[in-house]
Design a protein that fits this description.
- This protein has 182 residues and is mainly α.
- It contains ten helices and three strands, in the order βααααααβααβαα.
- Helix content is 62%, strand content 11%.
- A three-stranded parallel β-sheet has the order 1-2-3.
């Protein structure tokens, strides 16, 4: 029995230049109260630096960020916002081109890739969409890149974002085809 080979890539601070994290930028941009969000971020950083349990503090920060999202923020809006942010980061040279080239070489060599992020799963989708539309990743490479991340909304929302991605980006992909691959 042969196992498929997967490379796992974190987006924030690995594929993007550290300090330009998509979770922070997206959540802040979609926050109903940016000042309060920034205060929460500062508090979270102080807690982590003081040695408090990082998982619990980060989970609390994620919950606070979600609670501050404006009414009506949807999966599609998150994907679109991250795509917009990523386009800007690419234009500013804040996405590691070398890391993306390495990823493409690995995929072309037969490995599949997982973009694993504590960012919203929809954020990873927006990141991939931006890379594709900027010409950094081709359609054939996209077929071997999977995303894993936090859920912004329930299963129905994930189904909707999957359908949205299928029509906007992949053209061929459906949530059921992904399940058949595993």
């Amino acid at each position: 029995m042969r196992a498929n080979h997967f490379d796992v890539y974190d987006i924030d601070g690995t594929l993007t230049i550290p300090g330009h994290d998509l979770w922070y930028l997206c959540t802040r941009n979609l926050s109903a109260d940016r000042d309060l969000f920034d205060r929460y971020i500062a508090e979270w950083k102080r807690e982590i630096q003081s040695g408090m349990a990082p998982f619990e503090r980060s989970l609390t920060m994620m919950k606070r960020g979600l609670a501050l999202l404006k009414n009506g923020v949807s999966s599609e809006l998150v994907a679109e916002e991250v795509q917009r942010i990523t386009n800007s980061l690419i234009d500013q040279g804040l996405v590691w081109r070398e890391a993306i080239n390495f990823l493409k070489d690995r995929v072309r060599g037969g490995a599949a890739a997982v973009f694993s992020t504590t960012n919203y799963r929809q954020g990873a989708v927006g990141f991939l969409l931006a890379l594709h539309l900027k010409g950094w990743i081709r359609q054939t490479e996209l077929k071997k890149i999977f995303v894993s991340g936090s859920k912004l909304i329930g299963a129905l929302g994930l189904l909707f974002i999957s359908i949205w991605v299928a029509t906007k980006l992949l053209g061929w992909w459906t949530p059921w085809e992904s399940a058949k691959r595993h």
